[in-house]
TrEMBL record:
Family matches, as InterPro entries: YneE/VCCN1/2-like (IPR044669)
A family per Pfam: Bestrophin_2
Entry's transmembrane regions: 89-108, 120-137
Species: Chryseobacterium taihuense
Keywords: Cell membrane, Ion transport, Membrane, Transmembrane, Transmembrane helix, Transport
Family membership noted in the UniProt record: Belongs to the anion channel-forming bestrophin (TC 1.A.46) family.
Primary localisation category: membrane
Protein name as catalogued: Membrane protein
Membrane topology: Multi-pass membrane protein
Localisation: Cell membrane
Length: 189
């Protein structure tokens, strides 16, 4: 399912197809982790360049180190995306917030009653504001649990990837560069 116009990361995004050969694009359905396959292929290509004496031993080692680091970072990002937070964190925090918000007026009415009848009535908006703060903190925690879902407050992966793409194309001397991803309605994707 595609959310809010974001690419479905279960398939090869359309913008990636321009960097793949037709054979590579067709092979995607044969691999559970196509990104890992591509890194392995790039490693083989680096070794071929070395065997053909196009690059030096040092360059091969540097490129291989980059691929190894990329593979490590890719795995870390995948683990963050796929690893579910234990439900007890979300459930316990929610229950404690509900209990706190329900018991808060009982603790504050006595203190506000010292200000008189007016003080008792002032405890109502005060309790509402404090309860709202705790509800917002709970929602922020819920949104932070899944930073790659393509929602408003998530990591702008598309924008980050496009910036990297532009940087790499410039390093390679390309002059026709894609436009950077701009925010839409104040949201950067």
């Amino acid at each position: 399912m595609i959310k809010a116009g974001f690419p479905d990361y279960g398939r090869t995004p359309i913008f990636l197809n321009k960097y793949l050969t037709e054979d590579e694009a067709e092979l995607q359905s044969h691999y559970k982790n196509f990104a890992t396959y591509l890194v392995a292929q790039q490693s083989k290509d680096v070794n071929e360049l070395k065997n053909m004496n196009i690059i030096s031993d040092f360059n091969q080692m540097q490129l291989q180190d980059c691929l190894n680091e990329f593979y490590t970072l890719q795995g870390q990002a995948e683990r963050i995306k796929k690893f579910p937070l234990p439900r007890q964190f979300a459930s316990t925090a929610f229950v404690f917030n509900v209990l706190f918000i329900m018991l808060l007026p009982l603790g504050l009415v006595n203190e506000f009653s010292k200000l008189g009848d007016y003080g008792i009535w002032m405890s109502i908006p005060f309790c509402i504001i404090i309860g709202w703060v705790y509800i917002i903190m709970e929602l922020v925690g819920d949104y932070s649990e899944n930073p790659f879902e393509g929602l408003m407050f998530d990591i702008p992966m598309l924008s980050i990837c496009r910036t990297i793409e532009i940087d790499l194309l410039q390093i390679m001397g390309e002059t026709e560069l894609p436009d950077p991803i701009l925010s839409r309605n104040g949201v950067l994707v």
